[in-house]
Amino acid sequence: MRRLFWFAFAGGAGFVVDAGILQLLLSFTPLGPFVARIVSIATAMSFTWFINRTFTFGRSKRHPAAEGARYGFIGGLSALVNYGLYSLCLLCVPSIWPVIAVGISSLGAMVFSYLGYSRFVFSR
Predict the structure, then answer these.
(1) Considering the entire predicted model, what is its pTM?
(2) For the chain, which terminal residue's Cβ has fewer other Cβ atoms within 10 angstroms, N or C?
């Protein structure tokens, strides 16, 4: 239960970082919603790595470089799932607010990332 709590906390905090960065970029830069989302996902992924490594799963027994590479791999795949669902929302429902699409896509990618992180990155 502890892991699920911290994973949900990391995901919620990651959502706030992701949506906040996205909104800032959309408001204060010429970036469109597709390019801005790439930046916001990368920022949120770095933030959630720290929480997941520190509180959710703990450090693995792997060398930090190997752990980081595995985290990046799963995080990248999860980001592709997230970005794909986000793009699908924007393309299928053009009137949707991008931040709402972030919420929908983040929930979809959450299950994938939990399984990947718990079984591939931080497994003991």
Answers:
(1) 0.71
(2) N
